[in-house]
Amino acid sequence: MMRAVCWHGPRDVRVDTVPEPEILNPRDAIVRVTSTAICGSDLHLFNGIIPTMESGDVLGHEFMGEVLAVGPGCRTLAAGDRVVVPFAIACGDCFFCRERLTSLCDNSNPNASMAEALYGFSGAGLFGYSHLYGGYAGGQAEYVRVPYADVGAFKVPASVRDEQALFLSDILPTGYMAAENCGIRPGDVVAVWGAGPVGLLAIESAYLLGADRVIAIDRWPARLRLAESHGKAETLNYEELPDVVEELKQRTGGRGPDACIDAVGTEAHGTSLDALYDRAKHAVGLGTDRSHVLRQAIQACRKGGTVSVPGVYGGLLDKVPFGAAFAKALTFKMGQTHVHRYMAPLLAHIEAGRLDPSFIISHDRWPLSAAPEAYRMFRDKTDDCVKVVMDPWR
Amino acid sequence: MRTRSVTRDPRAWAATGALTVVAVAAGAAWVASRNPRWSHDGRRRVDMPALAAGRGARVERTVTILRSPDELYARWHDLARLPELMAHLESVTPLDEKRSRWVARGPGGTRVMWEAEITADEPGRLIAWRSVAGSDIENAGSVRFTPAPGGRGTEVKVLLSYELPAGRLGEAAVTLLGESGDHEVREDLRRFKQRMETGEVATAARRVEDSR
User: Fold this and answer.
1) Which of A2, A23, A24 should be substituted to probe chain B, the one whose Cβ sees the most B Cβ atoms within 10 Å?
2) Is A93 close to B198, i.e. CB distance below 8 A?
3) Which domain holds residue A242?
4) Does the structural domain B3-210 have CATH classification 3.10.300.10?
5) Do A93 and B66 make contact, defined as CB atoms within 8 angstroms?
6) Closest C-alpha among A145, A142, A127 to residue A1
7) pLDDT digits (tens, 9 = 90+) for A16-55
8) pLDDT digits (tens, 9 = 90+) for B151-201
9) Is residue B83 a contact partner of residue B89, using CB atoms and an 8 Å limit?
10) Which residues of A touch B207 (CB under 8 A)?
11) Which of A334, A354, A380 is the last residue of a domain?
12) How many A-B residue pairs are in contact by the CB < 8 A criterion?
């Protein structure tokens, strides 16, 4: 038996004792988790707005650890290897994986029919993220089963610490892809809504990719301070301004930012997503995602610019200024992160000292038993919480 | 995909059909017997094999698999291993060059049996079948393998028509399969694709005993 952070209902996560995972398929590995984090998207689960969660589901999709055992078809790994695991589960063999669009894997979601009912097609299965996304047990646990581990677990050299490598599982590639999707050219100004972990890492990535200036928009002082001090971004507290769009225009010589990153997404798609899941066609006219940030990004973006959306949306959006998007010939880039394709290059950046995402950690090495408190703290942003990392063996 | 029921409760129909569908399809592969009705010129679609006029339900479903038509055809042709791919199939036993016996699991240890006869077999392209008289489930269908454009694998299309038995056996089949035959065909095809592309079938079970 092992300890794991389990979902039991909205705002109710507990540390349960559950059976240890087993090798089920030839390409599986079992990983003994050494570091595991709570993601902003876990808060959607915590708040109970993602449908198809079941009591007892093991949470967590940002984790790393040591390989304990591998199946006979997993020839790239051996017991003892230190690995970090992408949050999206990908087979490596389908059309989408071959195209390096691994978050769109055709084969890894055993509940693909649920996602097809909702979205027309299913993307990849995800660790610890509802039955809609496969019902896989997550990594906020002592052990986790990793499917297709031969393509889904990346070895980490001993010279790289857990805190540096852990975020390769999700938020570092997510911030990086958000910036890459901006198609940054010399002289570009990039505006980033949301200075949480993904936004902060998008700021780092934007500079790495050659942005001239980055402007971060948030309302939490601790996060804005971090964007300024570590990220070298200009900051903008939207609660202190009458008009964010106008402010951005004034700060960019009247042109508008060349690219706008929505690192916020939705938190307001609760009932609508449930309804949508029941029957997509009945969802029209019901509640919609809260798309305030997306509206601002579209409005603020310069003509011919790019709106990049790493923030998660689940359902239908209301009053999106599509006319403005059309009139300005904007480009939209979005989606779950194709984590696998970024692992090697980002690890190289970390090893070379060009990136160190560990600066976002505000609460390190908490014991698993403190997970319920950690979820509440992260949601309410008390104690200047930006990122919580847990050690299952403390 | 379309599911159409003509004469009875569509859900009942669908359920049963699902059960056997893909399994039966496989059965068809056993023998090559050419029926002019099934031949085609590559542009014209082969019609569904019809049960008696106006009867039964129809299912049509297509999936693209990143493997060659020959590989997929060969795997489908391997009757004894079909139960690995099809959830409710217990066994397939060749009887002679043309026929094979199919056994599927029902609820409470019940079994549904039928015999299939191949009506068309074009290597790398098409397999078609029909149940023989006296089967628990009357059905006919085909599976076609067509190269997808741009080297993107093979489009695998299953067509099926079927009619459920009346009475307890039919009800058992419904209980077993849920209410949509279409769903079962789709899930069997999904497993086929997973097996052929990745070498395994995706599962989110936690323990071995939960995965069976």
Assistant:
1) A24
2) yes
3) 172-334
4) no
5) yes
6) A142
7) 999 999 999 999 999 999 999 999 999 989 988 888 999 9
8) 999 999 999 887 766 666 666 665 555 445 678 889 999 999 999 999 999
9) yes
10) 19, 21-22
11) A334
12) 68
Q: Where are the alpha helices (DSSP H) in chain B?
A: 10-28, 69-77, 168-177, 181-198
Residue with tokens 């070895």: A155
Give every CB contact of residue B117 below 8 A, 6+ residues apart in sequence: B28, B31, B33, B98, B99, B129, B130, B131, B132
ipTM of the complex: 0.90
Give the model's confidence band at A278: pLDDT under 50 very low, under 70 low, under 90 confident, else very high.
Answer: very low
**Pair (A136, A226) in one structural domain:** no
User: Could you say which of B199, B202, B206 has the minimum Cβ distance to residue A137?
Assistant: B206
Q: What is the pLDDT of residue B208?
A: 85
In Å, how far is A189's CA from the nearest CA of chain B?
39
Together in a domain, A190 and A314? yes
Residue B152 to chain A, least CA–CA distance (Å) = 7
Measured between CB atoms, which of B198, B201, B208 is closest to A22? B208
What residue ranges do the domains of chain B occupy? 3-210
Number of domains in chain A: 2
Percentages (nearest 5) of helix, strand, coil residues in chain A: 35, 25, 45
Q: Which of A95, A108, A147 sits opposite B153 (nearest CB)?
A: A95
In chain A, what percentage of residues exceed pLDDT 70? 94
pTM here is: 0.86
pLDDT digits (tens, 9 = 90+) for B118-146: 999 999 999 998 989 877 778 888 999 99
Other CB atoms within a 10 A radius of the CB of residue A387 amount to 25
| Cα-only R_g, chain A | 20
Closest CA to A43 of A334, A310, A271, A376: A376
- Report phi then psi at B96, rounded to 5: -155, -165
Cβ of residue A56 closer than 8 Å to a chain B Cβ: no
pLDDT digits (tens, 9 = 90+) for A63-95: 999 999 999 999 999 999 999 999 999 999 999
DSSP letter string, B165-177? PSSHHHHHHHHHH
- Residues of B in Cβ contact (< 8 Å) with A143: none
- Checking if the pLDDT of B22 tops 60, the result is no
Is residue B126 classed as helix, strand or coil in its secondary structure?
strand
- Give the confidence band of A207 by pLDDT, cuts at 50, 70, 90: very high
